[in-house]
Amino acid sequence: MSRRQWDRPAVRRPGNWHATCIGTRDCFVTRSRRDKCQDVDPDKRSQAAVVGRKGRREAGVVTIGLLIPQEGPPGIWAPSAEACATLAVHELNGTGGLFGREVRLAVVDAGPTARSAAAAATSALEIDGVDAIVGMIPSYARRAIVQAIGGRIPFVYTPQFEGDDPDCLTVGETSDDLLVPGIAHLSQALGARRFFLVGDDYVWPRGTFRTAKPIIRAHGGTVVGEMLLPFGFADYDRIFDAIRVSGADVVLPYFLGAGAISFNRAFAEAGLAARVLRFCSAIDETVLYGLGEDATENLFLSSAYFSSIRSHNNGGFLERYHGLFGDCPPPANAFGQSCYEGIHCLAGLVQAAGAFDVSDIRRRMRRTFQASTARGVDRQPVAGARHPIHFARVEGCDVRIMGPQ
Predict the structure, then answer these.
(1) What is the mean pLDDT of the chain?
(2) Residue 223's Cα: distance from chain center in Å?
(3) What's the rounded Cα separation, in Å, for the pair 257 and 289?
């Protein structure tokens, strides 16, 4: 796609997904259908922004932009992200919206790069007049989006990430939160000592591996290998050879979305799954259904959300989710479900602040309540609060929670 086409990213109303079954279960991995981009003269942006935002306010509408990649490795999460965000907006409107105004969701394709994500955020703000942006996008695009928005509207970043970012509102868990339970269990219960780190070469795996090394050492382990690979790399033979030679007990595979499916399938096909443990916080139900049962042996996960968690909060969320979308919606998973958290967090902060004032909203982060969550056990969840981390073992395509539950 040309740079000119990315001047006006696709923005659309939610709901245009279609499903393709890839397993034997009643679960689906789906991809969003991306609308054709429209071309807008950049010289008209300032005028369009003023008219667009003024018009929406006069019509009594609050518009939240949902910024998600709909292609490339993270595109596998787009349908669940859109569905979960749609549910959150549906719930807000069921209780009077925001300030008595209807809330609408504008789904914005972030594209495959940091540059395309920044252009999409700029377009959503200046042309479509969104009042806030909730983004489930890779870490490589976060800084570019923050700079593009420039503090003009709230930006909520929803997925897990490598560490605190003071320039945006984050609701996801950090690498430190997610790594400690898994490394502790594998070291103490299974005697794992030798860890091999491998993943995509960008800010999130790099930061995660920096965090992992002292945690591994603190639990008596050592890092016996580390490899960072460019996106799309699929010649895994030399990586698998290095893993074998290293004598690794555990591999930490940190690949993005569809890349995790590719690597872990190849890992199992190479005969390593029966001999080497795997632990990751970036694999969820969508990835598991893409892997299939034959590629999940000795695979351990950690997350603040699994659809199999038994709790009042998650039970209510899943009941409402299936009530709105039926028996076979996009599978609920940590990345998609984070958009539900992000919208309810945003709504709680905005209601407490009485406006979309970015400075006031930031001051209220973790100091006010949000109406709903699928995570944790709090009946009155705090906006932006961290939730308990669950450690799990994969059995086939099922996630068996080992703790806490």
Answers:
(1) 87
(2) 27
(3) 12
Query: In the block, which residue shows the tokens 């549910």?
Result: 87
The alpha carbon of residue 91 and the mean position of all alpha carbons in its chain are separated, in whole angstroms, by 21
Give the pLDDT confidence score for residue 95 in this predicted structure: 96
Q: List for the chain the helix, strand, coil content (%; round to 5).
A: 40, 20, 40
Amino acid at site 145: I
Where are the strands (E) in 159-318, listed by range? Answer: 169-170, 194-200, 222-229, 250-254, 277-280, 299-303
Local structure of residue 396 (DSSP, 8 states): T
b/e map 31-58, b = 16+ CB within 10 Å: bbebeebeeeeeeebeebbeebbeebee
Residues 6+ apart with CB under 8 A from 43: none
Q: How far apart are CA 99 and CA 60, in angstroms?
A: 9
Q: How confident is the model at residue 162 (pLDDT cuts 50, 70, 90)?
A: confident
Q: How is residue 339 written in tokens?
A: 């958009």
Question: What is the number of helices (H) and of strands (E) in the chain?
Answer: 13, 15
Banded pLDDT at 167 (limits 50, 70, 90): confident
CA distance 65 to 53: 13
- What backbone torsions phi and psi does residue 392 show, to the nearest 5 degrees? -145, 155
Q: CA-CA distances (angstroms) from residue 155 to 45, 151, 259, 348, 350? A: 21, 8, 27, 14, 12
Contact call for residues 357 and 350 (beta carbons, < 8 A): no
Q: Which residue has the tokens 């996801």?
A: 172
Residue 263 to residues 75, 236, 294, 377, Cα–Cα distance (Å): 17, 8, 14, 34
Separation between Cα atoms, residue 224 and residue 280, nearest integer Å: 17
Taking the C-alpha atoms of residue 366 and residue 342, their distance in angstroms, rounded to an integer, is: 13
Output the CA–CA distances (angstroms, integers) from residue 403 to 161, 175, 310, 388, in the order listed.
22, 18, 11, 9
Q: Tell me how far CA of residue 31 lies from CA of 20, 85, 111, 153, in angstroms.
A: 8, 16, 14, 29
